[in-house]
Amino acid sequence: MLVRVETLRQEPSGPVVVRVHSAVGAAVVVWEDGAREAVGGEHHIEWTVDEDIAWAGNTRSAASATSGVREEGDHIVFRGRLGLTEDGAAVLDVGGALILFEIAGPPPPDDADGTWVEVRAGRSSVSVWPCRY
Fold first, then answer.
1. Of 21, 48, 80, 96, which one has the greatest count of Cβ atoms within 10 A?
2. Separation between Cα atoms, residue 92 and residue 104, nearest integer Å
3. What would the DSSP string read from start to end of 84-105?
4. Interval 101-114 mean pLDDT
5. CA-based nearest residue to 15, from 1, 43, 34
6. What are phi and psi of 29, to 5 degrees?
7. Structure pTM?
8. Cβ proximity of 6 and 18 under 8 Å
């Protein structure tokens, strides 16, 4: 996903906190690259979410069939098309960016595959990694 990255906080010993602006929304997250000088400007990124999908917990059907990224308090909300894999994982397509999730209980219903959902993840569980093509 191509995004514009704005540095918000960069301390020598702490994480680099950035605001990521994409075509589908914006969020404040941690930049997971040791090259601190590379922060800022436009980058292709990959999202990393260190939370599992729990249907009716942090994941629910979306009211809108459009991709989105937004902040809600201490959470980042991803809206996208859900894909369930044969090995029990899930992939969320958010504006062309694919985010891989493990599935915790309760799992999504069988007919959730291919539907639009929202996944809420704690801000501390979400980060971005720059991609170099």
1. 80
2. 15
3. E-TTSEEEEEETTEEEEEEBPS
4. 92
5. 34
6. -145, 180
7. 0.93
8. yes
